[in-house]
Amino acid sequence: MKCKKCAGPAALELRRHNAAFCSPHFIEFFRKQVAEAIHKHRMFTRDEPILVAVSGGKDSLALWDALLEDGYQTAGLYLDLGIFDYSQESKAKCEAFAASRGLKLYVERVADTVGAPIPDVQKATRRPACSACGLSKRYLMNRAALEHGYAVVATGHNLDDEAATLFGSVLNWQMEALPRQSPALPSSHPKLVRRVKPLYRLSELETAAYAFLRGIDYIVEECPFSTGATSLAHKELLNRLEEASPGSKHNFLFGFLDKARPAFERLEDVVLKECSRCGQVTTGEICAFCKLADRVKQHV
Amino acid sequence: MKCKKCAGPAALELRRHNAAFCSPHFIEFFRKQVAEAIHKHRMFTRDEPILVAVSGGKDSLALWDALLEDGYQTAGLYLDLGIFDYSQESKAKCEAFAASRGLKLYVERVADTVGAPIPDVQKATRRPACSACGLSKRYLMNRAALEHGYAVVATGHNLDDEAATLFGSVLNWQMEALPRQSPALPSSHPKLVRRVKPLYRLSELETAAYAFLRGIDYIVEECPFSTGATSLAHKELLNRLEEASPGSKHNFLFGFLDKARPAFERLEDVVLKECSRCGQVTTGEICAFCKLADRVKQHV
Fold it and tell me: Which helix (H) or strand (E) holds A34?
């Protein structure tokens, strides 16, 4: 296999693009896809500071690296979920990444706000950890961005993540989730920052390759709570489709964004107000995060 | 396992309904699902003669049987695709079914209209046989119904068929196909008969069980052209989902029909006119079937 750009030996084949690249040209390709995502969805400008939510994994550190290399002003946000060694190690990866590049890294402990680390939250809610964890992360990302003066949070969600989420929403036709599936969620309230996913055009394999080729030291282990997660089962099914027909995932996600998503956009916007407890944005009286914290307090 | 109704020994477990039935109560359950489908989508009345499209397989003969047993006025329509022994045998099953019950069976040969049997059509179009075959069947069903004075055609599509079709449409977000996915397609033109699918609430396993328990002699072999068909690959994926979580297929199809389909219904109806060649309904000047017949004539 030869690099599509320079005809030198290829390091990576991208079947869905019917292309192969050498290392330097793959890195160029990767950054172009990030730039295309930022441009197409007007995610942010070069004058805006961006808060990058980092987990210590390949995706979010690859994202941070790509944004830095493209000259954006960034700081990192690490949310410490308190998941045993996994959290210790992933935090260390983020700290090392930030320190070696002289970057600011904010650290928030989920336990400080929700009342217990994720393993105890899971026990208190008696439901899969992913749901309470996702809720907590979205809440704390937004709150941290507001506190530290960032108007936009960037996350490392890649094409596989987004296609799997869409797949789950479609299997049950979750009419509230479908219009919210987007590479760029605008701010619909002064206390809600924008959320953007500059890696949505790149597959998991591609972010892993970028992180590897860039020499980024990331945590390879998956979250111990992810075993048996529905999203992983959906990723596996999508991988089978992708193998039989390269480009399936891309067509599924991009077809949705281009053609179907407009059909799901609600005609009237949901009315957002401030939670009577914490002041963060919610559709009800008390936000879902405060309700979760209440349940946790009753059990720990 | 015990029958949910009579507590006698169960013949069949239906995991997605969290129920089991003995033979008589399964047959009752099956017919109730058919009656519910007819009622819910106002498919037809008892005063209307119904043309049942039969292939000789379990689904369409089970449908014909259930409609007969419920007292509907029916005749059968067999479309002879000219697929070697497979068509010979399936036709014989339909003829035997009709003859033993003293029912009218219309037979139409695809080759008489399109110019060649399906194997030659496939060669002429150089595309998977399923696409030309489906087009031909829809065309001939409608034409035969008009000719013989039926306002409605019933087909044996089951839950698995419908879920797999929906899955294929969703993977590529086929915005024209999605609003047309329905258990009951109304007549939107005087030359277009209604098309209904009274088995859409019943799985493939359930129609097979019904056919078996009712002693219906059907062709067990699948169409030889279906090997490797995308719809079969999609059925397999849906079966994996169903196994992991019984009811997945049902939720996917029914959630679409209840919640998502309205979002896809086009605001303006497509303008239908009559094909300048054959007089059947089309959106263009010449209908897709006549174009197919032209291609076939050039090649045979």
Answer: helix A23-40
Measured in angstroms, the CA of B173 and the nearest CA of chain A are apart by 6
Q: Model ipTM?
A: 0.89
Helix, strand, coil share of chain B (percent; to 5) = 50, 10, 35
State the amino acid at position A211 in one-letter form: A
Closest-CA distance of chain B to residue A237, Å: 7
Partner-chain residue, chosen from B237, B248, B255, that has the shortest CB–CB distance to A173: B255
A interface residues, B as partner, C-beta within 8 Å: 170-173, 175, 178, 233, 237, 240-241, 244, 248, 251-252, 255-256, 258-260, 263-264
Which DSSP symbol is given to A284?
S
Q: What's the helix, strand, coil split of chain A in %, to 5?
A: 50, 10, 35
Cα B99 versus chain centre, distance: 22
CA-based nearest distance A263→chain B, Å: 6
Residues of chain A with C-beta less than 8 angstroms from the C-beta of B171: 241, 248, 251-252
Token duo for residue B126? 């150089």
Q: What is the tens place of the pLDDT at every residue in B67-106?
A: 999 999 999 999 999 999 999 999 999 999 999 999 999 9
Contact of A273 with A281, CB cutoff 8 Å: yes
Q: What is the DSSP letter of A258?
A: I
Tokens of B38: 């007819």
Q: How far apart are CA A275 and CA A38, in angstroms?
A: 31
Contacts of B173 in chain A (CB under 8 A): 251-252, 255-256, 258-260
Q: Which residue of A has its CA nearest to B173?
A: A255
Question: In terms of Cα–Cα distance, which of B75, B136, B273, B269 is closest to B191?
Answer: B273
Tell me the pLDDT tens digit for each residue of A47-91. 999 999 999 999 999 999 999 999 999 999 999 999 999 999 999
Disruptive mutation site among A166, A167, A169, A170 for chain B (greatest number of B CBs within 10 Å) = A170
* Residue A238 Cα, gap to closest chain B Cα (Å): 9
Residue B228's φ and ψ, nearest 5 degrees, are: 80, 5
Sign of the alpha-carbon dihedral angle for B55, B61, B66, B71: positive
- Reported as a single tens digit per residue, the pLDDT across A206-233 is 999 999 999 999 999 999 998 878 889 9
pTM of the model as a whole:
0.92
DSSP code at position A286: S
Write down the H helix ranges in B102-158: 110-114, 118-125, 129-148
Query: In the numeric block, which tokens belong to residue B290?
Result: 């006549």
Closest Cα partner for B210 from B72, B54, B28, B39? B28
Cβ–Cβ of B259/A175 closer than 8 Å? yes
pLDDT of residue A266: 64
Residue A19 has phi, psi (to 5 degrees) of -145, 160
CA dist B143 and B281 (Å) reads 10
A130 closest CA partner among A52, A233, A254: A233
